Amino acid sequence: MTELSVDQFREYALRVESEVGKVIVGQTEVVRHVLVSILAGGHVLLEGVPGLGKTMLIRTLGEALDLKFSRIQFTPDLMPADILGTEILTDQDGRREFRFRPGPLFANLVLADEINRATPKTQSALLEAMQEASVTVAQQTYHLAEPFFVLATQNPLEMEGTYPLPEAQLDRFFFKVNVDLPNAQEMVEIMDRTTGTETSSAGKAVSGADIVQMRALARAVPIASHVKQYIADLILATHPEDANASPLVRKYVRYGVSPRGGQALVLGGKVTALMAGRYNVAFEDIHAVAPAALRHRLLLNFDALAEGIRTDDVIDELLSVLQPQVN
Amino acid sequence: MAPNTDLSQTLHAWTRRLRLQRALAWSSRGFLLGLALSLGLGLLGAYRARLLQAEFLLLVISISLLVPILSGLTAFFWPIQPLKAARTFDLLFHLKERLSTAFELVQHSEHVPAEIIDRQLQDTLSASAKVNLRREFPLRYNLREGAVALLLVVLIGAVWFRGESWFKAAQRARDVEQAVAGQSTQIEEIIKQIEANEELSEAQKEALTSPLKEAQESLQDNPSLESSVSVLTSTGEKLQALSDPQSQQMSEALKETGDQLAGQEGSPLQSVGEDLAQGNNVSAASELKNIDVGELSPAEQGQLADQLEAMADSLQSTNPGLAEQLQQAADALRSGDTESAQQALDSAAQSLARAGQQITSSETARETASQLQEGAGEVLAAGGGQQQANQGGQGDQPSQGSSQSQADGSGGSGSGKGTSEGSDQTGDEAGSSPIPQDNGPGDGGETSYEEIYAPSLLGGEDGPQVGLPSSGEEDGEVIGQGPTTPGDPGQSLVPYSDVYSQYEEINNQAIENNEVPQQFTEIIRNYFDSLKP
Predict the structure, then answer these.
(1) What is this model's ipTM?
(2) How many other β-carbons are positioned within 10 Å of the β-carbon of residue A304?
(3) Cβ(A321)–Cβ(A246) under 8 Å?
(4) B442 falls in which pLDDT band (50, 70, 90)?
(5) Which chain A residues have a beta carbon less than 8 Å from that of B105?
(6) What CA–CA distance (Å, rounded) separates B7 from B15?
(7) Strand blocks (E) in A54-188
(8) Which of B84, B97, B113 is the closest to A227 by Cβ?
């Protein structure tokens, strides 16, 4: 059992947020969701227009977490071997043999920048590694080091020459975090920090071992049966055919959330509870992580796209309609 | 103390508070329900003249107390599942599911490390200790419910103070029910007496009890005022019809004869005379039959012949058949024909027995008819103000001004119905008659026309046609009619003084002929006295 207490967990988490905050202006919710996802052992897909600091955020997080960090810039000509690694012929003591040379995926924190620019073949190679935490090359399986996180970014605007991630692969991401435009005050602060003579950087807040302990502690957090029941009801209510489905769900949702969504809610809720100083999951923890955990798992129909309905609208309505039950 | 124990104590204390809060809330709702229920039932009972004022008060108090007490007790002791209570407290006290999680951990903790459980329990206790139970979970009375309760109390008070006419009507209805029940019991006793009377034949018993049994059934089936009075009156008329008007004279003649014979000590008919004097006619007939003429001495036979002859003379006018048989016996005795005398004597005894049965039957019928008439009067007296109450219930307006009284004056022979109408006549002025006097205009409507009050010919259906002096028409038709109040000239074209003497004469005849129930004779006399010109 972990020796970590909830206070230490909270302290570590806040320390990470503080270090990231030295570089990243604002975006507290984004930072929080990314951190929750990392502490829950999940991968994050960040979506936002260019220039919002997505890459900077993840790079800073890598600095703060004291983890082996690698960045992969996804391009259409990127091949799976470029990220996984490849067998190379080596000559050692007169013996020539193939040896595996690990790709950039062999790190603790991988930044998959503009993931939707790579071909599906390369995307699949990455997503398989995300799911299995291992890589298979030439019939040889290589386990990735713990902890292993993939933080991917994608640009929703430029669709030409991109390969949108299939829904099944989107489901592999623990959270999908939308990165919004900073407000005016934050914008000024960004300009001040990035255009001066001094550049700020994040210090090491926690080690990889700490993160492993934090993940273990998070998984041990208990969750009451009626909270689990609420999560199950919530997941089922995202399906149009469910009795508890909200009007927006019935009208605009094509496919509801998979059970992975429920897992994300539970784990995200546990981490959120610990970060709030609690040893149990509350309904408010579920509500806090629900948009990030569900938005990429909810498939809207054509009507929704035509009428400008966003998944967040559907989720917000669902959360307001489906109230926690005492019974 | 172990965290588990602390948690249990906290949960127990909060559950007790929850029970109290629920009990208070449901008592309040029960009080409202009780008030509404008692108001509804009270209104219904009062409006239908079923509830007395005291009963209304008792109903309101009992229901208003009983329902909230039961509601509160039920709410307090209603089973509360601890887990459900823990979830409720989480929501109430914003504990963020700490308590319910802790409760579940205590119950089923196999998948969670002990260290985590301990930390979670400590965290829950720490958060629970910050809860201010009185502030977060106050025992408050809902002011809105209080306002509704006040409104209901005001409505109940309005019924209490404004529903006096309803309660009076209920009282009268109750009195009528009791009076009708009393009459039913009385009829039952009369039937038993008739069936036990050995002087009556089976046919006479059947003739007398049959209408009484029908009346009893009718009273049980429909014990309303109108129906009861009608049944009692009509039954009295039927029984009156069974009585022979001459039987009373015959009875008196037999008694007179009996007195004379009883005074002749040592005579053969002394015992017969004693029985006749006491009204034991059947017994006297038996004594007469038992006389063995052959065993009498010639002197006694002569004395017997004289007595029989005297009896025949006395009974000649009331019972000629019996008188003739007695005379035949006397003649046979004088002629020494004892055998014929014995036969005539036996025949006379049989006639005397029949006469005795007839007298008994008539007297029983007359007495029973009289009792039923009195009973009808008692029922009427019991429901004397019912019509007023009914009208008050419809219009809630006291009767005043002109009034109309309809009196069923049938009695005696059961044919003396009369109707009087007066514009200024109040119940007091009409005497102590129990007949409703207040059906006047403006009192909320008139009562429906009922046959038992239907005017009929003076003296009954078979009574004499009364010709009133008119303005010249041959058939004496009255062409105008005005108020009959003494002193009020009205608009009648017939001189009042001419009419009055005829009415008074007919009235006196009716009273003398026993055509008017005894309890009404004094009232009617007073009434005619008040009408004297």
Answers:
(1) 0.83
(2) 20
(3) yes
(4) very low
(5) 222
(6) 12
(7) 69-73, 85-92, 95-102, 109-113, 134-137, 140-143, 149-154, 175-178
(8) B97
